[in-house]
Amino acid sequence: MSYQVEEVNGCTKKIVFNFESLDLTTEIKDALIKKQKSVSLKGFRKGKAPLSVVEQMYRPQVENDALNNFIQNQMYEAITKEDLKVVGYPAFENMNYEPGKSVSFDAVVEIFPEIELKDMSKLSFTKDKVEFDDSDLDGARKNYLNSKAEMKEVTDESVALDKGLFAVMNFEGERADGEKPENMKGEEFLLEIGSGQFIPGFEEQMVGMKKGEKKTLEVTFPEDYQAQELQGELVKFHVELLEIKEKNYPEFTDELAKEFGYESVEDFNEKNKKNIMEQRDRQAKQKLNQEILEKLVEENSFDIPQTLVSQQEEHLKEDVKRTLSQQGFNESMMEEYFQKWAGDMTDKAKFQVRSGLILDSIAKEHNIEANNDDFEKKLEEVGSTSGLPMDQIKNFYTQDQRMKNNLMFAIREEKTFDKIYDLVEVKEA
User: Fold this and answer.
1) Tens digits of per-residue pLDDT, 360-374?
2) Which residues are CB-neighbours of 92 under 8 A, at least 6 positions away?
């Protein structure tokens, strides 16, 4: 055997190759013949130059190609023989080549780690209780009736501004140095209180104001605010409340329910209650799953491939770039953002890689896979929650193999969490 395998860490191996005698005659000849077919030399038609002439012109290049092919073949043979589950591409080190005599080199490869998870049976988690109140349907009704609602001024001057009401206001922002930028001013601006449209804290401080009242609000801009010069800055907003308005919605009748695609008000209530409960159950499960992953990552320490971390970090950056672009960030602003939050991005990538490997290990241990029946069932679930036609949903996931693969991966992960629920204690709040 012309190599030895050394362990660098739990997910990195170094394969040390040493060929004390090396004969690349066959490889060089094969490379020359290949070169001969493609090269064009003066005085000869393409591919018709004598092999000796080609060798004279291209010997160094051909020998280098032959050596590279030899190294690649030896490396892949060793990886196959040792049954190494390699991640990414090998890195070559300590190359030492004596032409026609010997060659030695090291190939450093990252592999998927072998994970032995600690016993989970004593771990305990609490899932949030999923509750429903008839008032929860008010929001659903308003969403449907919004286009038919009429905006009216509240004439009772004793009424104070509250969530769900609308403020018609003038406002002007003042920075710490006294500057009052034009982009911080507004006249007769309509704002729904509780909508989250303004900087956090702005709408909350307007609650309780009455028509004609003036007030100075103090808000701190978020650290990730799109205008870098305002990130983390305390700004005063001078506000004058001109009017309070409210939306008056028509009565939700069977006729309107049918107009929105339901058989009756009762049918609307039943279906929307079901959707609301299912959505809240999904949210409760997502929170529970995150807590489970955080605990499993905390309990199980193992080395992870840097290649996977780098790849995941790039995926995260692409997602953030899309979001920042929608918020008006240019390239320079994005670069500064990533420099500022680089550590957080790396930590998040490491967590996602580590937790993903843990879930994959559990799935393999319990032979969990996603099959076609799971796929069809998930499509029906998507159809019932989205309201889209099944033909449209099926086309979306079957015509694009990447989308189908992503859905199958999500199904396998969902089934893995169902198994974890059996392995740990899960209590209802």
Assistant:
1) 999 999 999 999 999
2) 71, 105, 106, 107, 108
The whole-number average pLDDT for the span 196-216 is 94
Confidence of residue 342 (pLDDT cuts 50, 70, 90): confident
Mapped onto helix, strand or coil, the DSSP state of residue 241 is strand
| 319: Cα separation from own chain's centroid | 6
pTM, to two decimals? 0.77
Q: Are residues 242 and 269 in the same domain?
A: no
Q: Domain range for residue 201?
A: 150-248
Residue 307: inside a domain: yes
Please, which pLDDT band fits residue 1 given cuts at 50, 70 and 90?
low
CATH number of 181's domain: 3.10.50.40
DSSP state letters, 272-322: HHHHHHHHHHHHHHHHHHHHHHHHHHHH------HHHHHHHHHHHHHHHHH
* Other CB atoms within 10 Å distance of the CB of residue 201: 14
The tokens for 128 are 């949030």
Cα–Cα distance measured from residue 427 to residue 201, given in angstroms and rounded to the nearest whole number: 35
Measuring CA to CA, which residue among 42, 231, 243, 75 is closest to residue 152?
243
What pLDDT does 151 receive? 93
d(CA 302, CA 91): 22
Q: Residue 239 has what pLDDT?
A: 96
Q: Are residues 271 and 394 in the same domain?
A: yes
- 223 and 298 co-located in one domain: no
Dmax over CA atoms of the chain, in Å, equals 103
